[in-house]
């Protein structure tokens, strides 16, 4: 199965030349490290950055340049900085081609819960509500199960929702899945992971058609 970097590396293959991409906190922030060199991509962070690059090397951090998760980042030539109103104008105006988010739960109909666990300290919703309401192409980066081994791909979300019917694709440590009207369609399986393992780790309806290829990273 994949680690967090492996998930980010697989998601990077979904990014096309000329895309404007919003990266959420957590695993999504790693995606900028794995984009192909032969394409031009603009990464946007809702705290007011356009043109994010990979994470800085140790000793080269600038505490004034951070992403929405308060992590230090690098910027590429031509990067710009602006206020939250401008940032969310980009998001709400649908000028972002792809949104990559983390999640605590995703339902088989594309509902997502990623901002609150009752009784536990969580950073809060941030810009997630605006992102899922405005974006047409949302990929979720997440682990397939929680720390207790329970599935995070459910028939119905149990946590407070961030958005309804908005997720298009999910990449986990076990698989790549597309959200369809019938449920989670299994597109690829992680190296060394069987279809049966994915079935056992998925509570929501899983659609398996023919031979499922192993993902290439």
CATH topology name, in short, is Glutaconate Coenzyme A-transferase
Q: How many β-strands, per DSSP?
A: 13
Give the rounded overall mean pLDDT. 94
The total count of helices amounts to: 4
H/E element sequence? HEEEEHEEEHEEEEEHE
The CATH superfamily name is Glutaconate Coenzyme A-transferase
Main CATH class: Alpha Beta
Low-confidence stretches: none
Percentage of β-strand residues = 15-25%
Intertermini distance: 12 Å
Sheet with most strands: 10 strands, mixed
Strand order of the largest sheet: 4-3-2-1-5-8-10-11-12-13
CATH architecture: 3-Layer(aba) Sandwich
- Helix fraction by DSSP (H/I, runs of at least 4): 10-25%
Shape: globular
SS class = alpha/beta
From the alpha-carbon coordinates, what is the Rg to the nearest angstrom?
17 Å
* Domains (count): 1
Care to give the gist of this entry?
With 217 residues, this protein is of the alpha/beta class. It is built from four helices and 13 strands.
Keyphrases for this structure?
217 residues, alpha/beta, Glutaconate Coenzyme A-transferase, 3-stranded mixed β-sheet, 4 helices, 13 strands, globular
């Amino acid at each position: 199965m994949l680690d967090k970097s492996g998930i980010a590396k697989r998601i990077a293959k979904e990014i096309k030349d000329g895309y404007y991409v919003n990266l959420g906190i957590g695993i999504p922030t790693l995606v900028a490290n794995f984009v192909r060199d032969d394409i031009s991509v603009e990464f946007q962070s809702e705290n007011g950055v356009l043109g994010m690059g990979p994470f800085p090397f140790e000793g080269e951090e600038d505490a004034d340049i951070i992403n929405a998760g308060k992590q230090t980042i690098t910027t590429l030539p031509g990067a710009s900085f602006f206020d939250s109103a401008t940032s969310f104008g980009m998001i709400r105006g649908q000028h972002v081609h792809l949104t990559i988010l983390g999640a605590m739960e995703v339902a088989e109909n594309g509902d997502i819960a990623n901002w609150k666990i009752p009784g536990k300290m969580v950073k809060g919703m941030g810009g997630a509500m605006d992102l899922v309401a405005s974006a047409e192409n949302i990929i979720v980066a997440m682990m397939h199960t929680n720390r207790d081994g329970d599935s995070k791909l459910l028939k119905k979300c149990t946590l407070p929702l961030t958005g309804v019917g908005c997720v298009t694709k999910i990449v986990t440590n076990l698989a790549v899945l597309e959200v369809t009207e019938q449920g989670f369609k299994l597109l690829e399986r992680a190296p060394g992971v069987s279809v049966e393992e994915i079935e056992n780790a998925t509570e929501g309806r899983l659609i398996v058609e023919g031979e499922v290829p192993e993902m290439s990273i």
